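User: Um, what's this?
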Amino acid sequence: MKTFKRSFLTSSLLSVLCFSACGLASEPVTMADIRALEAQLAELKARLISQQVSEKQVDSPPRQPTIVEGTENQAKPTLQKDVRVYATVRPTLGILDDQGTSNIDVKDALSHAGIQAMYEFQHGWTAELHGEWSIDLSNEGNFGRSRRAYTALSTPFGRFGIGKQRPAQYLFIAEYVDIFNHGASPFAYDPESIFFVDNLVTYRYETGPLTFIAVGKFDGEAGDNQADLINTGLSYDNNGLHAAVTYQHHTDYEEDQLQGDSTLWSGALAYQFNNGFYAAVAYQGREYDYLSGDRDGHTFDLSLAYQLSQHYKVKTGYFNFDDGHTQSDPRNQSFDGYNLTLEWLPVDSLRLHVEYLMKSFENNNDFDSISIGFRYDFSTKWQYE
């Protein structure tokens, strides 16, 4: 609009000047007068154009570069890239009365160390590697027996893993009653149940409070040509409550000789109360279809804990293991028992305890022990570019 007005004024001024020069002159107009008038008009026009350019530069600043949202000016979201190194050392000293013989012995309550790396290379897609190895303080402090060794890929469709891992049976059933400072805890679950499984392929999917896990063991050279172990489970976790059921089918081999199959149905229930009380129960019903004969057995673990104060906790449990053999059968290893533990936790990473444990066997002498132990946990994490 401003340019239009200035052009109009310029044309009008020129018209007026021409009219004045030609129509109102009292003397005849010569060619010299016309050329002089044209020169003056040209000079006036140049001044007007120069003034328009100057005003336009003041009214309209130089155009800035266009910024497109989502390109250089937008911060890129951070993707997860970290490495965690951890270790836990758990020596115990106990007075043991086993099979009628008493002794004092240093034991190890499953000390171990590990490294875990996570790389989120795209939103919702994370690669993971995990290695974990035992530290046996009761056997010259040996280091090296693997507990975990796998890689995994987490996706929007679930998590897939290959290698030595925890199966659904431990994650859903045993973990919630495994609260004691002992290498054989949970005491009923321990004798024949699985903790870490090699040659394992796992799938895990979570939606809201529900988690589904399915695993299969594939070791063609040492076991079955197909799956040696199938283990699935479903859990519900919400507001301190855990409830789970699992199914397991296992083809059992001993020194590469087929022993038979076993089928396991299990359930677990745990709850963390607001007053510091914790309760968990786990049950496994097992059917043995062996070449040596069929039998039915079970495991039962009950674990209770109560936070006495900020730094003290008391734990107790009852357990019952039945391997399905009759009492007169020399292979019978069934037992039940209980334990009582007092813990002192001066800081989060340190734990000292004293524990009494008693096992009563159906077909053998009883076992009992009193022990003290120390546990120190260490963990650190680095983020990298």
Summary: Residues 1-26, 53-74 have pLDDT under 50 and may be disordered. The longest helix spans residues 31-59.
